[in-house]
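Priority: medium. Attachment 1 of 2:
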């Protein structure tokens, strides 16, 4: 027997049966960090958020929300859920990085952390895509779940 929830008794891939679970309010926050070379950061800090492809942060926010809505289609064993809220916040940090937070919420029988993680991931990839004309020396340093509430267990990561 395995502790992995997406494997059945025969160790084959299986979607989790959420039928017996209770509907609860579920919320998840994911963070992604993007590191850019100095000359690209300088342009962004000066308020020059426009690239040959358009506005960097606004495009990344829209892409992150669109991706979060499609998580059940992108991740094979992830339940499709009717996400009720998704917000992305993108800021330049004091450490000269871009910090992306994606918060997703739903009333459901299953969690929403994959939607938050997908939203943050795609927003980070969109920033890469928007800025690659200026430099390919861009690094998506981390994508991680910061907190989740609702369901069996709550989780909160120390920053």
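Attachment 2 of 2:
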């Amino acid at each position: 027997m395995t502790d992995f929830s997406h494997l059945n008794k025969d160790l084959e891939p299986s979607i989790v049966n959420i039928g017996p679970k209770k509907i609860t309010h579920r919320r998840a926050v994911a963070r992604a960090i993007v590191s850019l070379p100095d000359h690209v950061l300088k342009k962004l800090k000066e308020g020059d958020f426009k690239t040959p492809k358009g506005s960097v942060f606004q495009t990344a926010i829209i892409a992150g929300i669109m991706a979060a809505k499609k998580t059940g289609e992108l991740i094979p064993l992830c339940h499709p859920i009717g996400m009720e809220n998704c917000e992305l916040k993108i800021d330049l940090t004091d450490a000269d990085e871009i910090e992306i937070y994606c918060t997703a919420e739903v009333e459901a029988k299953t969690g929403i952390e994959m939607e938050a993680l997908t939203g943050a991931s795609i927003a980070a990839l969109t920033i890469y895509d928007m800025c690659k004309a200026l430099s390919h020396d861009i690094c998506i340093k981390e994508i991680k779940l910061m907190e989740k509430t609702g369901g069996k267990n709550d989780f909160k990561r120390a920053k």
